[in-house]
Amino acid sequence: MNKLQLIIIGAITAIVLLIGGVFIGKYYFSKTDIKVVDRIVYKTEYKTKIVKEYTTENFDQLWGCYQSPITFADRTEQSYLYVTAKDDCKEATARYQIGTKGNYKIYLGIAGAAAITGGILSYKYLRK
């Protein structure tokens, strides 16, 4: 083989290792952090209307609302996280648009290792 063929083989090997390293790093080794892109808080909805008269029934209703535990429910749809906080008397929902950001140090480390490996292989082929 002449030197040009060996250089091409070494370059192709380095590129394949680089691309393989990036994909392995991105889909296997990387840890993604969730970041909140946008937040929308919807209006609080009351389940029962509270009358402003001072009666025993209204007091009992208010006391029941006061003592009811707050529960949380969440669900995801595409890139949105919906969080609902509710008790026996009212509920409120917030929508978060979420995104992920990868750990680029891992990508660069794997790409560097692939480039070094490709360089070593090219050097060994060129020495022959």
Summarize the structure.
The chain is built from 3 helices and 5 strands. With 128 residues, it is an alpha+beta fold. The protein has 2 domains: 1-31 and 102-128; 35-101, no CATH class.
Instruction: Specify the structural class.
Output: alpha+beta
How many beta-strand segments? Answer: 5
Q: How large is the share of residues in beta strands?
A: 25-35%
Cα-to-Cα separation, first versus last residue: 9 Å
Radius of gyration: 30 Å
Protein described:
- With about 130 residues, the protein is α+β, with helices and mostly antiparallel strands.
- The protein has two domains: about 1-30 and about 100-128; about 35-100, no CATH class.
- It has three helices and five strands.
- Strands 1, 2, 3, 4 and 5 form a five-stranded antiparallel beta sheet that branches.
- It is rod-shaped.
- It starts with a helix and ends with a helix.
Task: Produce the secondary structure layout.
Blueprint: H1 3-29, E1 33-41, E2 45-46, H2 56-67, E3 71-77, E4 80-86, E5 90-101, H3 104-127
Antiparallel strand pairs: 1-5, 2-5, 3-4, 4-5
Helix pairs in contact: 1-3
Task: Provide key terms for this protein.
five-stranded antiparallel beta sheet, 3 helices, 49% helix, rod-shaped
